[in-house]
Design goal:
The complex is a heterotrimer of chains A (307), B (96) and C (393).
Chain A: H1 24-33, E1 40-44, H2 48-53, E2 65-67, H3 73-89, E3 98-104, H4 106-110, H5 113-122, E4 127-132, H6 172-177, E5 183-187, H7 192-204, E6 209-214, H8 218-222, H9 228-237, E7 244-247, E8 250-253, H10 263-268, H11 283-305
Parallel strand pairs in A: 1-2, 1-3, 3-4, 4-6, 5-6
Antiparallel strand pairs in A: 5-7, 7-8
Chain B: E1 36-40, H1 50-54, E2 60-63, E3 66-69, H2 79-83, E4 89-93
Antiparallel strand pairs in B: 1-4, 2-3
Chain C: E1 2-6, H1 8-18, E2 23-26, H2 33-44, E3 51-54, H3 58-71, E4 75-79, H4 81-86, H5 88-96, E5 102-107, H6 121-124, E6 132-135, H7 139-154, E7 162-167, E8 176-180, H8 183-189, E9 206-207, H9 216-245, E10 252-255, E11 262-266, H10 270-283, E12 288-293, E13 295-297, H11 301-307, E14 313-318, H12 329-339, E15 348-353, H13 363-379, E16 386-388
Parallel strand pairs in C: 2-3, 2-4, 4-5, 5-7, 6-7, 11-12, 11-14, 14-15, 15-16
Antiparallel strand pairs in C: 1-8, 6-13, 10-12
Helix pairs in contact in C: 1-2, 1-7, 3-5, 7-9, 10-13
Classes of the chains: A alpha/beta (307), B alpha+beta (96), C alpha/beta (393).
């Protein structure tokens, strides 16, 4: 267990970027940079993270970083990894390099899923971090495969006929684990030590590893910016976002929540769920959300005891 | 209105839109985004460093004294103040 | 020099093998498949040190290639038709990020309807993507151009991706005797790649930044310049290649153009048929010529205006249709070149759309085209600007 004092002070993700005040991705980027062990390359997908941190001629990154397109972070990372291998074979390269693909839920759950699946199946040695703020935030808060049931987004608006997104969210970690990769995990920046440990673990795996880290978005989720960390702590405390890992197929809950807070507390705190309470309380949807959360928790608990 | 520096032409610019200076965003001061500024009450601060790890902008700097806010970049999000276990950070209105 | 019986696809794969490529990331599609299959066998038999990535789609193929290229590797991929269309956005990105990737394209018709046979609509659909585009007439040229392509792409004045195009099935699957160079010869010609920028831990750079309205245009202008440079770089590379192989290449090949009254210009294998027909017709005293255009992008305006200097009528053959345009792609390019100030007298030009979906073109068809061109040369009147040759009315 590392202490905060032991973490490196060097900021490989530095100030001057134009992420929103209180953006979870800024926090996550900095934490990610604290977990590196040697020469590292970041392969970023299009999204808030990429756009706000590399506006020409500025960059907030102090390590090799490349962005190619939206849906292909995993494919580009595959290419980078292949190049190091190919170049090493002809004697042109001898360093051990870690590759981290950094994409949002936009570039992962939906348009990026093919590239991710291919890279996982081929077994490339890289860590894929999905910074998950549960919608396509960069283009203006449109729904993604990670948006939860009932959330108001611009393409699943809370209207008089349809009250927010009608579907539950995809289970990214289950999809990744189904590829038989050595390590897949969820994380929340509110639990910084758990997240940083997981990043390091993912880097050290010889092969693909995936981390889905929940990222609070003050604009998209609609809460006052100072509450960002509280929001993703509450996400865990309500069991909405269980923090667990799947190591060689074995499930393990890392942050056990014995007495969960009710989902209502999480929903009430964010403007994207405000329509579930006003003008009337949509008990049906709130109950459905609670049921999904409970079922998911039970599923993971069962899987973690089956080892 | 400030006079804008003349930007380089296509012959001068390095090819492929590659940014060759790491961390060059430090030239872009985001401090003027603030509506509120965090102020650390050093007598309350125990140097736990939670504010430092949670700052999205690396605007909290660790030094021998403990933690210091870099107001050149702080956007005033208030996460540091909210997360401080000693309530040692207060958000004060930014004076014009 | 050894002569090996190979298909066009195999010839390209062989060139890639000799080219000491670091990474091949490709997805199979008819009629490119043999390129990747043959190369996979080289890998499996330990004949190459290349890292071969069996990606899950063509879009990922080009994505992986871009990633590899930016890491500093020499990269190759191949595709056709729908595959090329699927990687369309990535083609622009590969060029914009200045990746000297070489891609073999076994030209095949684009859906719909689905058709697996050869026409040039696939590459024509991506002609503005910032790739240098070369067309091979046969397997020998496919081999020779693939080798030259790496050198052109990686030249410091170019640093752009290059596509080597070969007609699907007609060249890709046809066996020829191909004269191959010795491995050492290729090694001497193709030195280790020296990237303009790449992943470097001592000097970390950010690649792929967002450029707003205040910077984007300048980078596109840089690409324009690089594309223009590709022309002179190609000329130089062809000279070097001639020294190594004895075979001469350039931006175009002219047959009978010294005294031709009427000429055909086309890309790819049809040039071979046209040349044979022209040869026969010239024996009968008919003054016809053939221009085989090797370099399509950048379009060699000077050479085109020069080669058609004394000709009276030109039939431009397009093996793809550009919907909504008066002429096909090659037709538009030739006519715009000839429309320039100072080109006097201007030859009469008409456009022949042919070969769509692999519709065969026979020597008799080309004889008809030559005769039509001779008629235009004689009368000075173009009766039909665009002719759909070979379609059933």
């Amino acid at each position: 267990m590392v202490t905060l004092k032991e973490l490196p002070t060097e900021e490989l993700f530095t100030s001057g970027h134009r992420l929103c005040a209180g953006c979870g991705e800024g926090i996550i980027n900095r934490m990610t940079m604290k977990a590196l062990r040697g020469p590292t390359v970041i392969v970023a997908a299009t999204g808030c993270n990429e756009v706000a941190s590399t506006i020409y001629p500025y960059t907030s990154w102090c390590l090799p970083w490349l962005h190619v397109a939206f849906e292909n972070a995993a494919a580009v990372a595959s290419g980078v990894e292949a190049a190091f291998k190919g170049m090493a074979r002809r004697g042109a390269w001898d360093k051990k390099v870690d590759i981290i693909a950094l994409a949002g839920d936009g570039g992962t759950y939906d348009i990026g899923l093919q590239a991710l699946s291919g890279a996982l199946e081929r077994g490339h040695d890289f860590l894929y971090i999905c910074v998950d703020n549960e919608a396509y935030m960069n283009t203006g808060i449109q729904r993604s495969g990670s948006t939860p049931l009932g959330a108001d987004t611009t393409t699943s608006p809370a209207g008089s006929s349809v009250p927010g997104k009608p579907e539950w969210k995809k289970d990214l970690i289950a999809i990744c684990a189904a590829h038989g990769i050595e390590y897949a995990a969820t994380a929340s920046p509110a639990y910084w030590s758990d997240y940083i440990t997981k990043v390091r673990k993912g880097i050290e795996v010889n092969g693909p590893a995936v981390i889905d880290v929940i990222s609070p978005c003050p604009l998209g989720w609609r809460y006052e910016s100072s509450l960002g960390i509280q929001m993703v702590r509450l996400a865990v405390e309500t069991r909405y976002f269980p923090v667990y890992e799947v190591e060689k197929g074995k499930y393990k809950i890392n942050i056990n929540i014995a007495k969960p807070k009710p989902m209502e507390e999480f929903l009430k705190a964010q403007g994207r769920f405000a329509h579930l309470f006003k003008p009337t309380v949509r008990k049906d949807i709130i109950d459905q959300i609670q049921a999904n959360v409970d079922n998911n928790w039970n599923r993971i608990t069962k899987l973690s005891t089956q080892n | 209105m400030s006079k804008e520096e003349k930007k380089p032409g296509w012959k001068e610019l390095p090819p492929g839109a590659v940014v060759t200076e790491p961390g060059s965003s430090r030239k872009y001061k985001t401090g003027d985004w603030r509506a509120f500024r965090p102020v650390v009450e050093s007598d309350k601060c125990v140097n736990c460093l939670l504010c430092w790890v949670y700052c999205p902008d690396a605007a909290i700097v660790r030094n021998e004294k403990g933690v210091e806010i870099n107001y050149d970049y702080c956007k005033g999000c208030g996460i540091c103040a909210k997360e401080c276990p000693r309530l040692a950070i207060k958000m004060m209105e930014e004076k014009k | 020099m050894t002569t090996v019986c190979m298909t066009g696809d195999e010839a390209v794969a062989y060139a890639v093998k000799q080219g000491k490529v670091d990474v091949v990331a490709a997805y199979p599609i008819t009629p490119q498949t043999i390129m990747v299959e043959r190369f996979s066998k080289y890998v499996a038999d330990g004949e190459v040190k290349t890292e071969y990535v069996c990606v899950e789609s063509e879009h990922s193929a080009m994505s992986a290639c871009v990633g590899s290229s930016l890491t500093g590797a020499r990269v190759f991929t191949a595709t056709s038709s729908q595959g090329l269309a699927l990687m369309h956005e990535m083609l622009y990105i590969a060029s914009g990020l200045r990746c000297p990737i070489v891609m073999g394209v076994a030209n095949r018709a684009l859906s719909a309807p689905i058709n697996i046979h050869g026409d040039q609509s696939d590459m024509m659909g991506s002609r503005d993507s910032g790739w240098v585009q070369i067309y091979a007439e046969n397997a020998q040229e496919a081999y020779d151009w693939t080798l030259q392509a790496f050198k052109i792409a990686e030249d410091e004045k170019v640093q752009l991706p290059v596509s080597v195009n070969l007609d699907g099935f007609i060249i890709s699957h046809c066996v020829e005797g191909v004269n191959t160079l010795e491995d050492t010869s290729v090694e001497n010609m193709l030195q280790t790649r020296k990237p303009m920028f790449s992943i470097d831990f001592d000097k970390p750079v950010t690649i792929g930044a967002l450029c707003f309205t205040d910077y984007y245009y300048e980078f596109k202008r840089q690409q324009v310049e690089a594309m223009r440079n590709a022309h002179s770089v190609l000329d130089r590379v062809c000279k070097e290649f001639k020294d190594a192989s004895g075979r001469s290449y350039g931006v175009l090949d002219a047959f009978g153009m010294d005294d031709a009254d009427a000429a055909i210009i086309c890309l790819g294998s049809t040039a071979g048929t046209a040349r044979e027909v022209a040869r026969q017709m010239r024996m009968q005293g008919k003054k016809v010529g053939v221009v085989k255009l090797w370099l399509y992008r950048p379009f060699p305006v000077e050479e085109i205006t020069a080669v058609f200097k004394n000709v009276k009528a030109v039939a431009v053959l397009d093996k793809a249709v550009s919907f909504g345009a008066q002429y096909g792609a090659l037709g538009s390019d030739v006519i715009s070149a000839l429309y320039k100030d100072g080109v006097e007298p201007k030859p009469k030009v008409f456009n022949i759309i042919f070969g769509l979906g692999g519709r065969d073109i026979q020597p008799s068809d080309l004889e008809g085209v030559f005769n039509q061109a001779l008629e235009v040369a004689e009368s000075g009147v173009v009766k039909e600007e665009t002719v759909f040759l070979g379609v059933r009315e």
